[in-house]
């Protein structure tokens, strides 16, 4: 029997400890150039999923790479939840002070992986996205006020 090795990713208080995060105000989702009559329908399909229109729901929730990220982390996602990142990631039991920031950062990395595929023809696995998330979360850790344990 062959056992598949799955790297374990943990986002914990060791990475981000604190009470206040920097203000992260971002709007995620494709530009919907089709709906703005900037491009044709055939130019608006997901790079990973031929024939599927690239909507924000598809990009962040249904595209196989995004789906793999959510499944690996054990996060249940439903339609439009990416528009309310403070509702994402409750299953991870992150400190409340960092949960929204980590989810925004995760959405950002899903978005960046999509752009890398479109513009650079560079594919990213769910583990690549999670590694980048952890790297960035560690870099942002200094922005959080440490609280006594």
Outline of the structure:
With 149 residues, the chain is mostly helical.
DSSP, total strands = 0
Strand content: under 5%
Helix content: 25-40%
Tally the helices: 4
The whole-angstrom Rg is 17 Å
Low-confidence stretches: 1-10, 12-32
What structural class do helix, strand and pairing data support? mainly alpha
Helix and strand pattern: HHHH
**Terminal Cα separation, in Å?**
44 Å
Instruction: Assign an overall shape.
Output: elongated
Main sheet overview: none
Mean pLDDT: 78
Explained architecture:
- With 149 residues, the protein is mostly helical.
- The protein has a domain at 56-141.
- The protein has 4 helices and no strands.
- It has helices spanning 56-62, 64-73, 96-120, 126-140.
- α1 (56-62) crosses α2 (64-73) and α2 packs across α4 (126-140).
- The longest helix is centred in the C-terminal third of the chain and has 25 residues, at 96-120.
- It is elongated.
- The termini are far apart.
Protein topology:
Layout (H helix, E strand, L loop, with lengths): L55 H7 L1 H10 L22 H25 L5 H15 L9
Helix pairs in contact: 1-2, 2-4, 3-4
Question: Which keywords apply here?
Answer:
149 residues, mainly alpha, 4 helices, 38% helix, elongated, disordered N terminus
